[in-house]
Give the backbone structure.
Amino acid sequence: MKKKKKKNIRLNKYINIVCLFIIIVVAALVYIFGVRSTVERDVVFNVTKGVSVADVASQLQNRNLIDSITLFKIAVRGNGGRIQSGQYDIPRGTSVWRIADMFANGDVAATTVVIPEGLTVKQIKELLLEDNTLTGDVECGPGTDLPVCNLQDGDLFPDTYRVARGTSRLALLDLMRKKMSDLENKWEKTGRIAPRPLKTWNEVITLASIVQKETSKDSEMPIVASVYLNRLRDKMRLQADPTVVYALTNRLGDMHGAPLLREHLKMESPYNTYVNYGLPPAPIANVGIAAIHSVLQPADTNYLFFVADGKGGHKFARTYEEHMKNHADWREIKKELNK
């Protein structure tokens, strides 16, 4: 019995030693792979498309982001054995395992691009060119005939886009195009319902673009839409200033502070709604969801006119006489503002 007891004690001792050894090894591996870091400051690291794991490991070591190529390769294997291209933010103190995990899962650095409602395609392209977190041109190369290469106003959906830093500008434009195309497809599938006399998606977006340019207040948009729909039904000219500005600026949509003069309202253009009846041939801006909803679900009014109220909104009128009174009030407000 004593010999057996001594044998069990000796066995337990060996087991404890082995367990302690395993614990030490595991702790060492956790520290080496998951805690220890040579990254002394926040850095941006680019993984180019098609680059090998060995090349990435060499680049990381050259920049003192890791101290062992072998350890990095082991960490990559432990995360599935692959790395994804892109631009990565590597914070100070990031371990070799975390770096491999980021590369394996494509945890790339992101950027937020805000596209305001009511801009033209030209203005949106100018905005994207000013954003240095994006890459590439806004125009397609010669011989390319993709949908994104032939954008027209009304094709893009303004929104806040969260994309990988380094995303190409054409890719972002195409993302905006697809989002607007999805809205059109949804409208088609739900029965193409639109208020009289509108029949097509182009007509819906064209009127929405005028509404978008006339008011920045979402709450006012259904009323403004009702004014223009009432004028269309009564065979009246729309007489919308933004359509003249669009024609006058060669589809840029921005006068850069220059005033719109009475003589401008006489210019010959299919977009001039002071000269022509009905809607312009196409949208004059890219519109948000509120403007689209305002046209598809306009307010029920008898209004035919509106003018600025000096407070960021508008005064609406049913008759020309009432409109002239509102116009006179606006002129007085402008005089006071000019003072």
Q: What stands out?
A: The chain has a mean pLDDT of 90. The chain is about 45% helix and 10% strand. Residues 2-35 form the longest helix (34 residues).
